[in-house]
Amino acid sequence: MKLQPDKYDVPSINGYGPGWIAINGEKHQGSVVVSSQGEQFAWQAERFEDLNESHFAQLAALDCEVVVFGSGLRNRFPPAAWLRPLIERRIGLETMDTHAACRTYNILAGEGRKVAAALLLEPAQDQTP
């Protein structure tokens, strides 16, 4: 049986490790936002504690169905006040650790969903087991 590799017509995350993520083969070493509609930009936060409502307002401007929030090495939930811009635009938010968010984004984007991933990449030296 001949197998064909999955081919996405949307930006995909094809690798990650401590302190980095590869989107369409391009390595990023800081927090990043990527959407299935082609938007991609640096997300100015190194730690969860650096985030605030303005970070989530950036995500609301993407006008997608759902945002997959990768909160770093562990699952951390943003305060409700930060989510106001998303709630006002009726955009869903799923929160999980960053590596799970990478995998989830790929699945949803591959299904043709209007999805964005906001991926918090903590500095590599903070990533001890």
Automatic annotation (TrEMBL):
<dbReference type="InterPro" id="IPR007523">
    <property type="entry name" value="NDUFAF3/AAMDC"/>
</dbReference>
<protein>
    <submittedName>
        <fullName>Mth938-like domain-containing protein</fullName>
    </submittedName>
</protein>
<dbReference type="Pfam" id="PF04430">
    <property type="entry name" value="DUF498"/>
</dbReference>
<dbReference type="InterPro" id="IPR036748">
    <property type="entry name" value="MTH938-like_sf"/>
</dbReference>
